[in-house]
UniProtKB/TrEMBL annotation, chain A:
GO biological process, alphabetically ordered: plasma membrane acetate transport
Any GO MF annotation of the entry: symporter activity
Protein name: Sodium:solute symporter family protein
GO cellular component, one term: plasma membrane
Membrane topology, from the record: Multi-pass membrane protein
CDD domains xref list: SLC5sbd_u4
A Pfam family annotated for this UniProt entry: SSF
Chain segments annotated as transmembrane: 6-25, 45-69, 75-96, 116-133, 153-171, 183-201, 307-331, 343-363, 396-424, 436-457, 463-483, 490-512, 524-545
Family designation: Belongs to the sodium:solute symporter (SSF) (TC 2.A.21) family.
Keywords carried by this UniProt record: Cell membrane, Membrane, Symport, Transmembrane, Transmembrane helix, Transport
Cellular compartment(s): Cell membrane
InterPro entries per UniProt: Na/Glc_symporter_sf (IPR038377), Na/solute_symporter (IPR001734), Sodium:Solute_Symporter (IPR050277)
From TrEMBL, chain B:
Sorted UniProt keywords: Membrane, Transmembrane, Transmembrane helix
Top-level taxon: Bacteria
Name of this chain's protein: DUF485 domain-containing protein
Biased segments, Pro residues type: 16-28, 38-60
Upper lineage: Bacteria, Bacillati, Actinomycetota, Actinomycetes, Kitasatosporales
Chain intervals for the UniProt region annotation (Disordered): 1-83
Transmembrane spans: 108-133, 145-164
Originating species: Actinacidiphila paucisporea
């Protein structure tokens, strides 16, 4: 890719982000502006902002990459990401807005009146947000590397710096404007190249996607590796090598690659003849087109596909409501009814977006099969556009895709940073504006360290793990808290610790060990299917056992506030006004 | 007005209750007392006790008073808020109402959720059990791809639209019931359809 265009795209996104941020800074006057944008945001802008915040690296890059590598099963991710908003609408949106809670810890304290639950919820918010931030920053590193050849950490540092700066400068208002803009940027950046992609595929004679063969290079292809790669050859092939292959240096030397594993260092260029079968990165099993298109076939070497499919669906459906940056957004709705309508609008926007990554994942197998060799299928959305058009047109499309990718990292990361900073500053720094600024820094640094220190999983898988933790902790807290009077503080506390803790342990083990085989690996790689039931069971059982801790009057008061329509509710002075996020803690 | 509710919207589909004689204070501020659940409550807000203290006129300070349409129009009607005050004034009765509202909303949500679970949860099982489905093609596209990649989204939006409409109707019925010309009955209402 042409570094100049890529850097220009990056610069445009960053400048636009900072410009909106500064504009927002001029608008935000007091603490309440700072936190919740004064709740004067139009439904379309708010829905765009929610969509913009939600469409992360996983949606923009990861879904296409996983579909390309592992086939139709991976469509469970985008469907789950969208359906998660439906579940949120059904169970949480309006009551949560009416509860007046600004963050998940606020909700926990308000509903259960327990500082201990509040603290545990605060820790979980930070854990989930950090888990979510790491793949964003890694995606930024991967993107900048793909576009310019810069080292991996550079992109992560750039995005982290911008995000912390924007959050600290403008708070919520600027973030809302930035994200509304970035949703539409992302939609454009993925839709326009997709059109050209389909045209290119048709003009290539619409090669079959579901054929009986594994992917092959359709022309002489030079693959330049940006990272050291270990790959497996299944059909021997003679390639030209410049660089170091299997420990031997070559300069344009012809090498016969025999069956089995080979390693190549970063910077090595391999030239494959037309018709050669694409060697796959070690760990990614080559799959024929037919097998790849077949659901539940375990294409690409994933074990227990049926279990994984259900676990992914469960994690994404129930995890969405527990994502800290999603929740904060609902506070910017004027009332519960607007919260519902905004959610409906969000579903429409997300549905339009998620039609598109599948196109990249499917056509990537025939148009850019070398990504299966480098293992960087996550870059399909970035690499494919410029293959569709020769010359300047292709470079411009690639620059557009790069801009969309950075919009994805920046918007999600700023939403997460603001929400973690909100929690940290409220609970530790007494909620001043200055405290919020320091807290932004505290929210951004740990994931930056983690992102640069580890290489990580495929982006969408890593995000899926954050969803799993959210689904096993905050989903039961919200659902039971909103709809069941019997939830006690102790039940919530133990449920959060058990569900969130088990899921977090599974995430850590998976990240450390990498993908494995067998049931234990499947259970750890997709923990939601068992940690969510555990969390619900613990919360309900302990609550029933500790029923004496309930205070019916307090529960009644909160239930009244959460469920009463605004036009009825809070009219009498009997309901205490909801404190602004900063009050009551100093 | 306090921070909780933000700007209020006018309620639709319900006529304003009868003419109000006094342009009194912010409607609903002082909690009115209603008869106990057993007794027949007075019909509607009309027989409001005239002893209600009007706040502004009594204050001796010569304050300029803007004479305009009462603010209650913005808040969507007088009686609904009076009803809310009643809810707070009479915890037991209020709880009955609110519990039934919660039950109705929960029933609606669980219904949609059950459909979602059956469709989305049934699909993998169906694909596992019926291999013919996996390779079937519609309009040149494999059926699983079409279902998961395209068809799922309009279905999700449709379910969301259905829920928003019905949830608002449940709330409207509840509000009407509280503040309508007929006072609420003593028994907990079943407002949902």
């Amino acid at each position: 890719m042409n570094p100049g265009h890529g850097l220009a795209a990056l610069a445009v996104v960053l400048v636009a982000t900072l410009a909106f941020g500064v504009y927002g800074l001029r608008l935000s006057r007091g603490t309440s502006d700072f936190y919740v944008a004064s709740r004067e945001i139009s439904p379309l802008l708010n829905a765009s902002a929610i969509g913009g915040e939600y469409l992360s690296a996983a949606s923009f890059l990861g879904v296409a990459g996983l579909v390309m590598a592992y086939g139709v099963d991976m469509l469970a991710y985008p469907v789950g990401y969208t359906a998660g908003y439906l579940v949120l609408l059904l169970l949480v949106a309006a009551p949560l807005r009416r509860s007046g809670a600004y963050t998940l810890p606020d909700f926990a304290e308000e509903r259960l009146g327990s500082l201990a639950v509040r603290r545990v919820a605060g820790v979980l918010v930070a854990v989930i947000a950090w888990l979510y931030l790491v793949p964003q920053l890694q995606g930024a590193g991967l993107t900048l590397q793909t576009v310019t050849g810069a080292p991996r950490w550079a992109g992560a540092v750039v995005v982290a710096a911008v995000v912390v700066g924007v959050a600290a400068a403008g708070g919520m208002r600027s973030v809302t404007l930035v994200q509304g803009f970035q949703f539409w940027l992302k939609l454009t950046a993925i839709a326009v190249p997709a059109l050209f992609l389909v045209m290119a595929w048709r003009s290539a004679g619409a090669p079959a996607l579901t054929g009986p063969d594994i992917p092959r290079f359709d022309r002489t292809t030079v693959v330049t590796l940006q990272d050291p790669v270990r790959f497996d050859v299944t059909q021997p092939v003679t390639v030209r090598v410049t660089g170091r292959l299997d420990g031997t240096p070559y300069t344009a030397g012809a090498v016969r690659l025999g069956d089995g594993g080979h390693t190549a260092t970063a910077g090595t260029a391999l030239t494959f003849p037309p018709g050669a079968a694409v060697p796959h990165r070690h760990g990614l099993a080559p799959a024929s087109g037919a097998r790849w298109a077949d659901p539940l076939s375990g294409a690409g070497g994933r074990s227990h596909p049926l279990y994984a499919l259900y676990s992914i669906l469960l994690a994404t459906l129930l995890g969405t409501m527990g994502l800290p940056h999603v929740l904060v957004r609902f506070y910017t709705n004027p009332d519960g009814r607007a919260a519902r309508r905004t959610t409906l609008l969000v579903l429409v926007l997300l549905s339009g977006f998620y039609l598109l990554p599948t196109v990249y994942g499917a056509l990537g197998r025939v148009l850019a099969p070398q990504l299966l060799l480098t293992g960087q299928t996550d870059t399909a959305v970035l690499v494919l556009p410029q293959l569709t058009q020769a010359g300047e047109g292709g470079r411009l499309l690639a620059a557009l895709a790069t801009a969309g990718a950075f919009a994805a990292f920046v918007s999600t990361a700023s939403g997460l940073t603001v929400s973690v900073a909100g929690v940290v500053s409220q609970d530790l720094l007494r909620g001043s504006t200055r405290g919020f600024r320091w807290a932004s820094l505290a929210a951004g640094i740990p994931p930056l360290v983690m992102a640069t220190a580890t290489h990580g999983l495929p982006v969408a898988d890593a995000i899926g793990l954050a969803f799993a933790v959210a689904a096993s902790s905050f989903c039961p807290l919200l659902v039971l808290g909103i709809w069941w009077r019997g939830l006690t503080d102790l039940g919530a506390l133990l449920g959060l610790v058990a569900g969130g803790g088990l899921a977090a342990v599974a995430v850590v083990l998976t990240s450390v060990r990498g993908a494995g085989h067998g049931w234990s690996a499947a259970l750890l790689a997709q923990p939601a299917a068992w940690t969510v039931p555990v969390a619900f069971t613990v919360m309900i059982t302990v609550s029933l056992l500790t029923r004496h801790r309930l205070s019916p009057a307090a529960v009644d008061r909160v239930m009244l506030r959460m469920h009463l329509p605004e036009e009825v509710g809070s009219g009498g002075s009997a309901l205490p006004p909801v404190r602004p996020p900063t009050a009551g803690r100093s | 007005m306090t921070g909780l509710s933000g700007p209020r919207r006018p309620r639709r589909g319900r006529p304003e209750p009868g003419p109000e004689p006094e342009p009194g204070p912010e409607p609903g501020e002082p909690p009115r007392h209603k008869p106990l659940p057993g007794q027949k409550p007075p019909p509607g807000p009309a027989p409001r006790p005239p002893a209600q203290p009007p706040a502004a006129p009594e204050s001796p300070a010569p304050r300029r008073v803007a004479v305009s349409a009462p603010r209650r129009h913005r808040t969507g009607g007088y009686s609904a808020r009076a009803g809310a005050a009643d809810l707070h004034a009479q915890p037991q009765l209020g709880q009955l109402y609110v519990r039934s509202l919660v039950r109705n909303q929960l029933r609606l949500s669980l219904g949609v959720l059950a459909v979602l679970a059956a469709v989305l949860g049934g699909l993998p099982v169906a694909l596992a059990a019926l291999p013919g489905l996996r390779t079937a093609e519609v309009a040149g596209i494999r059926l699983p791809w079409l279902l998961l990649g395209v068809v799922a989204y309009p279905l999700l939006v449709g379910a969301a639209y259905f829920h928003v409409r019905h949830a608002e109707r449940v709330e409207r019925d509840f509000t009407d019931l509280l503040g309508g010309p007929d006072a609420p009955p003593a028994a907990p209402p079943r407002a949902a359809r």
